[in-house]
Design brief:
It contains 5 helices and 7 strands; from the N terminus they run E-E-H-E-H-E-H-E-H-E-E-H. It is of the alpha/beta class. The chain has 2 domains: 43 residues, no CATH class; 92 residues, Rossmann fold (3-Layer(aba) Sandwich), CATH 3.40.50. The strands form 2 sheets. It has a 5-stranded mixed β-sheet. The chain has a two-stranded antiparallel sheet with strand order 1-2.
Length: 149
């Protein structure tokens, strides 16, 4: 099957295949099959601007991951953000700050939450607005208010 109004090859195919198992030594058995080119379907949806906008809304808040202690501190706050409807994630492993901020920039994540020893001692987080570059020390409740605004 080909997509209309798009210059792309077929996006799906299939059919009946006589003696399909003959190449494996079982003569006389036919088969049917179908396949979809998911990446091609995605390309068609994008090219025709048909991809549902709610499906491509990206992460709004990234929690920087400095290590196990910090991640354990962040996870309940992350859960609270998600419960409130904020699309949030934590960087999957402890990595250098530059790498994690580069990830946030590449994904165009507007806010980054940074938690180190000082923040944990105060029960707070440093919130960085990636658009303005502003940073502020906030409580989890204040974090939710700023990100949801």
């Amino acid at each position: 099957m080909k997509a209309l109004d798009v210059q792309i090859g077929s996006i799906s195919g299939g059919g009946r295949y006589d003696n399909l198992t003959g190449v494996f030594g079982m003569d006389g058995m036919s088969g049917v099959g179908i396949s979809f080119g998911a990446d091609r379907i995605f390309d068609v949806l994008n090219q025709l601007d048909l991809y549902p906008k709610e499906a491509v809304n990206g992460t709004e808040l990234l929690f920087v991951n400095f290590g196990d202690k910090e991640a354990v501190y962040c996870l309940p706050v992350l859960a609270k953000m998600r419960e409130a409807g904020v699309r949030a994630e934590i960087y999957p492993d402890a990595a250098k700050m530059k790498k994690q901020m580069g990830y946030a920039n590449d994904k165009q994540i507007p806010f980054v939450a940074i938690v180190g020893e000082n923040e944990m001692n105060e029960g707070k987080l440093t919130l960085k607005n990636m658009t303005t570059g502003e940073q502020s020390l906030v409580t989890p409740d204040e974090l939710l208010t700023v990100v949801k605004a």
